[in-house]
């Protein structure tokens, strides 16, 4: 029974990692800064940005794309370590615990960087634009992911 509890804990961690990835994917584009994404579309299609705002947002998106790529690579590595640790230990042992901690750290860093990026983009907006943006962020964070 003890091993079942440990396997269940590892499964729960994996599900939480998947939900974190879904959340991040819902609010920001995946891949290059030019690709789609809910906030990206709102920013560039609904907010009527002026040329100065466009340039600042583009610079933020370019910088964040590089940072996000590195953080996503770290998360993928952490998940590979977790899979290997589970396969090797077959219980919630020290390697699994280290891999879970690494995965949590990577998810947390990605979420923090994402939120910092969202706030940096918001700082470029006029108050009327920020209100539309804020509503989109709230909707992205509260809607249930769908296939």
Quote the beta fraction.
under 5%
Tell me the span between the first and last alpha carbons: 34 Å
CATH topology name, in short, is: Four Helix Bundle (Hemerythrin (Met), subunit A)
CATH class: Mainly Alpha
Order of helices and strands: HHHHH
Task: Determine the structural class based on helices, strands and strand pairing.
Answer: mainly alpha
What would you call the shape?
elongated
Name the average pLDDT: 80
- Sequence stretches where pLDDT stays below 50 over 5 or more residues: 29-36
Please report the number of helical segments. Answer: 5
The tally of beta strands, per DSSP, is 0
Instruction: Please give the radius of gyration in angstroms.
Output: 18 Å
Largest sheet: none
How many domain modules?
A: 1
The percent of residues in helical segments reads: over 70%
Instruction: Give the name of the CATH architecture.
Output: Up-down Bundle
């Amino acid at each position: 029974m003890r091993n079942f509890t440990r396997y269940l804990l590892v499964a729960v961690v994996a599900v939480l990692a998947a939900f974190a990835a879904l959340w991040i994917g819902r609010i920001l584009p995946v891949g290059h800064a030019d690709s789609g994404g809910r906030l990206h579309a709102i920013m560039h299609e609904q907010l009527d940005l002026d040329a100065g705002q466009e340039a600042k947002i583009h610079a933020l998106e370019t910088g964040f794309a590089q940072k996000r790529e590195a953080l996503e690579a770290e998360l993928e590595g952490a998940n590979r370590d977790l899979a290997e640790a589970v396969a090797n230990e077959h219980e919630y042992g020290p390697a699994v615990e280290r891999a879970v901690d690494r995965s949590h750290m990577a998810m947390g860093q990605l979420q923090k960087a994402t939120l910092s990026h969202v706030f940096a983009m918001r700082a470029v907006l006029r108050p009327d634009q920020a209100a539309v943006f804020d509503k989109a962020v709230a909707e992205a964070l509260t809607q249930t992911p769908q296939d």
